[in-house]
Design goal:
Elements (H helix, E strand, L loop, with lengths): L8 E13 L7 E10 L2 E7 H7 E16 L1 E6 L31 H17 L2 E8 L2 H11 L2 E8 L4 H5 L7 H17 L7 E3 L2 E2 L7 H14 L3 E5 L3 H11 L3 H8 L6 E5 L5 H9 L3 E4 L1 H6 L6 H7 L2 E4 L8 H14 L8 H15 L17 E5 L13 H5 L6 E6 L2 E5 L2 E2 L4 H18 L8
Helix pairs in contact: 2-3, 2-15, 9-11, 12-13
Bound molecules: zinc ion.
The site of zinc ion (ZN) has 5 residues, from loops.
């Protein structure tokens, strides 16, 4: 396919690998492969010798000890929630509603930014190239993602419930809170609507039980008018289902349908505690599940993902600010299908698809990211195959799902830009980000009456 007599053409990057997993429909795996990149796009994929002969790069990446694959699409995160990591996981289902635990509302903008930088660093370090992030201070989240160079869908956490009443099992609408969180969310929509930016604003109503039907209706209208992706938590806990049933006389997914939130522009986190009718309703609408298998399992739950898939929902994967490692999420997602009785109908290639193409489709980027192909965005990873858990590599993508982890990620490219090299971020000082977030988190815990044991 390459004319051997033609002079090599200039390009920005040639990225070489022992094996390239293209993650196309045919599941193509190329040995001794390379891709060429011009600006933000892949311009050639093929045998390394052919690419080397045809292209003259400004810069070379990769080697015969690297594995090449598309970047991972991580569809549900709240990066500042790093505040509570390691402290609350063993307490209860929703410690975020518990007095004494630092809340999003307790964060100043700069604190949210410092914690978001930590979250973003972790997601980048472990191979997420596109993320969905929503929380208080969305502009701080957007800034953190932009500073790291990630492709990011960012929204404010819209809600009008009184959290403390909710923790007692009561529901009170707090109209002022609804107005304030919606204004914060719309502020980031206005600020971040540049067409060529890697940061795309979304609308994120927190959950059906923490938003009144009127607020949800308003969000649905705004999303339609502005053509925005919608993100929420849905059927995450039996408490949420009970609360919405008691308040509105219908199940959360029915409420979302009634207010106009269900549909292809919706990506909903968790989707666990659903009846067959709920699953059918959700799937029919063409909505997408942000499947969080590790976080769900930590609460003792397993989402019915194969039933969602069969009903027509899109399936995407997320780490939800747990360990940030999408390889762990892929492994757990596959295990989750088998724990729910799905047998061996899904395999490593399928969950790699959820972690790449599934997320791309949900975010309206089906033709742009999610696979290594000519014309696609240059969003890709190199793994260091010298890791003992990445051997032996004989065939197929099984190794990536069943044995790899995010620590093997050596190089990350997003939009043609090198963001991580040798496991170190290129656009910021990773050590400084960790140290600053640590200082902020300790101060927050102190403000909440907790003295850190470790000096
Ligand atoms: Zn969440």
């Amino acid at each position: 396919m390459t004319d051997p007599t033609a002079a090599p053409r200039p390009c920005d990057l040639v990225i070489r690998a022992r094996v390239a997993f293209l993650l196309d429909d045919a599941g193509t795996v190329l040995g001794d492969a390379a891709v060429a990149v011009v600006a933000d796009r892949i311009v050639a994929v093929g045998p390394a010798a052919e690419i080397e002969a045809a292209w003259m790069p400004a810069r070379r990446l990769g080697s015969s000890r690297h594995l090449l694959m598309p970047g991972l699409v991580n569809t549900h995160n709240h990066t500042p929630l790093m505040i509570v990591r390691g402290m609350v996981e063993d307490l209860s289902f929703a410690p975020a509603y518990t007095p004494g635990i630092p809340q999003g509302d307790a964060l100043a903008f700069e604190e949210a930014h410092a914690l978001a930088r930590l979250g973003v660093f972790e997601l980048l370090r472990f191979g997420s190239t596109t993320i969905v992030d929503f929380y208080r201070h969305p502009e701080a989240l957007a800034r953190a993602a932009e500073e790291a160079g990630l492709r990011a869908f960012v929204g404010g956490r819209i809600m009008d419930a009184d959290n403390e009443a909710l923790a007692r099992g009561e529901w009170h609408a707090d109209a002022a809170r609804g107005r304030a969180t919606l204004a914060e969310a719309m502020d980031v929509v206005e600020r971040r609507r540049a067409p060529d930016s890697l940061v795309t604003p979304i609308l994120g109503p927190h959950a059906p039980d923490t938003c009144s039907p009127d607020l949800l209706r308003e969000v649905a209208t705004l999303a339609g008018e502005r053509d925005l992706i919608l993100h929420t938590h849905l059927h995450q806990s039996p408490m949420e289902v009970e609360a919405v049933l008691a308040r509105d006389g219908r199940r959360p997914v029915e409420l979302l349908e009634e207010v106009g939130l269900l549909g292809p522009r919706l990506v909903a986190g968790h989707c666990i505690h659903m009846s067959d009718a709920d699953i059918a309703r959700f799937g029919r609408s063409g909505s997408h599940v942000a499947h969080v298998p590790v976080g769900n399992a930590a609460h003792g739950s397993v989402a019915p993902i194969l039933a969602h898939e069969a009903a027509g929902a899109g399936i995407t994967l997320a780490t939800d600010t747990k360990s940030g490692d999408m390889f762990e999420a892929m492994r757990m997602a596959l295990a989750a299908t088998r724990i729910r009785g799905g047998g061996f109908v899904r395999n490593a290639a399928d969950v790699l698809g959820w972690a790449t193409r599934g997320g791309a489709k949900a975010l309206g980027l089906a033709d742009e990211i999610g696979r290594l192909a000519v014309g696609r965005k240059a969003d890709l990873l190199l793994l260091d195959a010298r890791q003992p858990n990445l051997a032996p590599l004989v065939d197929g993508p099984g190794l990536l799902v069943h044995s790899a982890n995010g620590a093997a990620v050596d190089t990350v490219v997003v939009d043609g830009r090198v963001l991580l090299e040798g496991g170190r971020p290129t656009l910021f000082d990773g050590d400084e980000v960790v140290a600053t977030a640590e200082t902020v988190a300790r101060a927050l815990w102190r403000r909440h009456g907790h003295t850190p044991l470790i000096a």
